[in-house]
C-alpha cells in the first residue's frame, strides 16, 4: 500500500510537466526497487547504495584500501573503498585501480588468463 501511494505521488508530480501528462497510460514495463531490493541483490547493509556509513571513521582516507590485504592481485572498486561513494568518486577509483593493475602487470609480469 505504501509503495502504491509513493508511485501515485511520483506520477502526479511528473504530470505537472505538460509532456509527461498521461505518463501512467504509457508505461510498458515497471520495476520498483526499495532498500530491501538493494540489500538482497547487492548485499548492501540496510540497502543503502552508499555502502559504508557517512560517519567520520568512514570518510575518504579511512575507507578500506582498493588493494586487498589478504588476496594477491585482488583489487576492489566502488562506494565502499577509497576514494568513496558517489558516481564521480567511484569512477575516479575505478580509473586508479585500472592504472594500478596495469602498473603491477608491467613490474610483476603478471599474465592475463584467457
Unreliably modeled segments: none
Rounded to an integer in angstroms, the radius of gyration calculated over CA atoms is 21 Å
Characterize the largest beta sheet: strand count, sense, and whether it forms a barrel: none
Residues in helix, %: 25-40%
Total helical segments: 3
The general outline is elongated
As a percent range, the share of strand residues is: under 5%
Distance between the termini: 50 Å
Order of helices and strands: HHH
- Return the structural class: mainly alpha
Mean pLDDT: 79
- For the secondary structure, the number of strands is 0
Lay out the secondary structure.
Layout: H1 2-14, H2 35-42, H3 87-108
Describe the structure.
- With about 110 residues, this protein is mainly alpha-helical.
- It has three helices and no strands.
- The protein has helices at about 1-15, 35-40, 85-110.
- The chain is elongated, with a radius of gyration of 21 Å.
- It starts with a helix and ends in a 6-residue tail after the last helix.
- The model has no long low-confidence stretch (mean pLDDT about 80).
Amino acid at each position: 500500500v505504501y509503495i502504491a501511494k509513493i508511485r501515485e505521488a511520483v506520477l502526479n508530480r511528473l504530470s505537472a510537466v505538460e509532456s509527461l501528462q498521461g505518463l501512467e497510460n504509457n508505461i510498458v514495463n515497471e520495476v520498483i526497487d526499495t532498500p530491501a531490493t538493494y540489500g538482497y541483490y547487492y548485499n548492501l547493509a540496510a540497502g543503502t547504495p552508499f555502502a559504508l556509513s557517512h560517519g567520520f571513521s568512514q570518510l575518504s582516507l579511512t575507507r578500506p584500501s582498493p588493494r586487498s590485504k589478504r588476496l594477491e592481485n585482488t583489487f576492489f572498486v566502488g562506494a565502499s573503498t577509497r576514494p568513496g561513494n558517489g558516481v564521480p568518486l567511484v569512477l575516479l577509483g575505478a580509473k586508479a585501480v585500472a592504472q594500478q593493475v596495469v602498473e603491477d602487470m608491467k613490474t610483476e609480469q603478471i599474465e592475463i588468463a584467457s
